[in-house]
Structure formats: C-alpha cells, structure tokens
Amino acid sequence: MTHEFAARIGQEYCEHVRRSIIDVDEIGKNEMFRFTDKMPTNFWHMGLIARVLPNAKIIHVRRDPMDVFVSCFKQNLTWPFCDLQAIVRYHAAYLKIMEYWNLVRRSLAEV
Question: Are 82 and 73 in contact (CB under 8 A)?
C-alpha cells in the first residue's frame, strides 16, 4: 500500500465519520475533531489502522477475561461469542495479536 493510497483511505474514513456522527454546523469544515471507536474487534485491524491513520491514538483497555465471557453469554451474542471453547480460542488469538503489536510499538520507540 503506497503512502498516498493509505493517506487517501484514512482521509475518506475520517470524512465518513465526520458526516455520520458530527453536526457540521457545530464545527467548521477544517476544524479538528476527535472521536472514539470502541469496537472490540478493532484489534484485528491494528496494522491497517496504524497505516491509514498514523496519528491515531490507540488505547488498549483490558478487562478480566471472565467478565468478558460472562458479558458475552448474557448478551446472547452470535458465534464465536456464544460458544465457550470458541471464545477462549478467540481470546487467545487476541492476546497473541496484541502482544505482537506491543513488540512492534516498543521496537519503533527505540528507533
């Protein structure tokens, strides 16, 4: 992905968000705005997010896994969040992916 293409995708995403959630009359077209995307599955897209939104601040919030599992069951969510074995595997994948991105972040901080 070229730098130009990544920048265009990031800009289009921000414009989509601006049109979707912000009353344009409240802020100027060129004025800075901030928003929070709390989608729990965003960890799958960390590399893409970092590439197309290089100034994005990513805050990794961790909950006790048992709290997450109980919450998923109480909400009657769809697979994999309704299957105990699947959610345990999903959580293990999440931990591995976040461990990888923490290593990447640390190595970039050393440069």
Answer: yes
Q: Is residue 64 classed as helix, strand or coil in its secondary structure?
A: coil
Per-residue pLDDT of the chain (111 residues; tens, 9 = 90+): 899 999 999 999 988 888 887 665 665 666 667 778 888 788 999 999 999 999 888 888 888 988 888 888 788 888 887 888 898 899 999 999 999 998 988 887 886
CA distance 111 to 109: 6
Residues contacting 26, CB < 8 A, separation 6+: none
Task: Count other C-beta atoms under 10 Å from residue 72's C-beta.
Answer: 19
Please give the single-letter amino acid code of residue 59.
I
Number of H helices, E strands in the chain: 4, 0
Render the burial of 5-41: b for 16+ CB within 10 Å, e for the rest: ebeeebeeeeeeeeeeeeeeeeeeeeeeeeeeeeeee
